[in-house]
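S1.2 Input.
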Amino acid sequence: MLLKSCSLAPTLVWHHIGNTVRQAIFIILLSMALGVTVNLIRPDSIHFVETWSMADKLVTEDGDTLAIPLEDAAALFADNAVVFLDARSPVEFDQGHIQGAINLPWHDVDNYFETVIMTLDPEAMYITYCDGETCSLSHDLAMLLKDLGFTRIKVLVNGWTLWKEHDLPVTTPSS
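S1.3 Output.
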């Protein structure tokens, strides 16, 4: 009898492990279903699919967009009704920038804070820009300026590349 019960022991252990695994999977699936249900009900739910477009990320809590189309930015430039803020590094700025732009590099904004931001008029219109579809420097700079009380802020997504591609006025070392 003792020999028979010893041979059943591994079978009982595997049966117990199997039950434990099934119970764990059931609990995980139940908690996932409950989490998804609660997320769908909540007004401030977490989105399951995120957009990767920089323009989509430039929508404020009010539903307003910070993104400005190139045509509108060029029209404001032509009317001399806007100040462009270049969020790229000083090296990139020196290699070329939108004509009349002010360099306010996001990665070094603390060092430029007093010399640049303190001279800006909070009521003026500003367009921040950097380079590349996924560049977030201009967005981050725009959000900082909004937090500081600047109300007329827009972001030209992929600004430097678009501006050059459309042969709009630039300043380069050779000009």
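S1.4 Remarks. The chain has a mean pLDDT of 86.
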